[in-house]
Amino acid sequence: MKRSLLFNMLFVLLLLAMLPGGMALAQEENVLVIAIPGDIETLDPPFSRFQRSNETNLNIYDQFFRYGSVDTGLGYSVADTGTIEGASVESWEWSDDLSSIVLNIREGATFNKTGREVTADDFIYWFERAVGTESGTLWNVNTANIASWEKTGSHQVTLQFSQLSPWLFFLFRDQSQGPMDAIEAQANVADDDPWAARWLAKNDVGSGEFYVESWEPGVAMVLRANPDYWAGKAFFDQIVLQVVPSSADRALLLREGEIDIAASLSTDELAALEGAEGVKVLTVPTRNQMIMGLNVTEGPLANKLVRQALSYAVPYDDIIEGIFGGKAKKSAGPVPVDGKHHDGSVWPYDYDPDKARELLAEAGYADGFEFTLDIASGVTTTEQIAVVLQAAYADVGVTMNINLQTAAVFGEQLGTLGHQAWMRDLLWYVDDPGYTGVATFRTGGITNWMGYSNETIDGLIVQMNGTLDEELKAELAREYQRIVSDEAPQLFLADMPFEIAMRDDIHGYVQLPDNLLWYWPLYRE
């Protein structure tokens, strides 16, 4: 292990030395080194599904809007979701009837790689590309009820809405919602790739706080600060994203001071690092749920009784205490326990293996069955939970095989329903059951990776999103939670805090609702 760690560190140092200015420059500059479990999947924001690529795109593209932040007094700040600030969009004006909004694009902002000024044409291209690629950004456009967009000035775009748009600001501060250099993107299209998706997966054309300076896939990506960023240059001149697959190795590098931040550590390693010299661990409450999704379209998992049996066979307390050290909360349905309109009274499940066996027999699987759970490699907590579930299911006669996949393959198969079952965390960064319902449990929702469809649920979601009456929405949300819990297309395993370990001289951390690390406010002191 020591040899491989040394080799990785030497390679990163060599990479820095090869950059303009050489090693001397790298030593003189402020450099932040972050150890990550796997490579960045894509630099094309609309096609980003995982934390590594989402986080990178957050920092290299300048989103339409951003949240304000509040200092907690606990060594970190949190995003203030009630305060919307301009980013690439400097200001905006709603029409009196809220049917349209004028976006005033920040003048003088430039793209990192070409130096060209950001204009309304780039925003129009962004919307056109969302439609043309039918990607995640189109889902945001549709969910925000945007009916049309029009260039109404060199630095102005007007949006028209088909109906009330309660989530515009929440959706358009998402990491995928940043203008890209339209001219540069269009210069790299192909006959079979009219939106340059292949080229943009490996090349950044943003106007954000950082840009990609070098990328050695599987080893490290180096970001450089934008010296002309409208809000000021970041403290760190370079961000080195060093791939270290082993969680134990990432923890060791942090403890020894070889890196500044260790991403995605296991709960055991985080606990071991608490109190370590020169290290601090931040623990922040979130609406992040660990979820096991079941493909309900075929096989034994298409049977509701089987899905209920698997829900009863989950040793919830063992997961919360054994994996999360008691820091997580027991999940109770499709709305996080700290989420708006959560109602735990309709959650039926607790650990009951006898009930699980009874339901399996009723479903015709008294002798059990076999299925495969796919998980992304390099996420230690997910692997640990999978092992616990494997043993628990074996106890009720069910064989669950665990299949580790690269993040890229795992993500691709989510979108195509290629998994029999999958496990990952899902973070509800918009605190509204109507939004999470649209995304995950509505027929055809963007994160409906289960193939789940229920007309009653679809109707409840429409009703929740069509009212501003919070009492009515709470009633609708209760029925929504009852039905989803009963049908069990997902197993809700734990509501998790977000924990991150770093050297104790790193400051400025801001907790965003999507748990992405924002590099710009970080500094060393």
What would you say this structure looks like, in words?
This protein is of the alpha/beta class and 525 residues long. It has 3 domains: 154 residues, Periplasmic binding protein-like II (D-Maltodextrin-Binding Protein, domain 2), CATH 3.40.190.10; 125 residues, Dipeptide-binding Protein, domain 1 (Alpha-Beta Complex); 212 residues, Dipeptide-binding Protein, Domain 3 (Dipeptide-binding Protein, domain 3, Roll). It has 18 helices and 19 strands. The chain starts with a helix and ends with a strand. About 2% of the residues have low confidence.
User: Would you report the number of β strands?
Assistant: 19
Determine the N-to-C terminus distance: 31 Å
Low-confidence stretches: 18-26
Radius of gyration: 23 Å
Strand content: 15-25%
Whole-number count of domains: 3
Number of helices: 18
| CATH superfamily grouping of the largest domain | Dipeptide-binding Protein, Domain 3
Present the secondary structure layout.
Elements lengths: L1 H17 L3 H7 L2 E6 L14 H10 L4 E7 L5 E10 L2 E6 L5 E6 L14 H14 L2 H8 L2 E8 L2 E6 L6 H4 L10 H5 L10 H6 L7 E7 L3 E6 L12 E6 L3 H9 L5 E2 L4 H7 L5 E16 L9 H9 L3 H8 L29 H10 L7 E7 L3 H16 L3 E7 L1 H9 L5 E7 L5 H9 L13 H10 L5 H18 L2 E14 L2 E2 L2 E2 L11 E2 L1
Parallel strand pairs: 1-10, 1-11, 3-18, 13-14, 13-15
Antiparallel strand pairs: 2-3, 4-5, 5-7, 6-7, 8-9, 9-10, 11-16, 12-15, 12-16, 17-19
Helix pairs in contact: 1-2, 4-5, 11-13, 16-17, 17-18
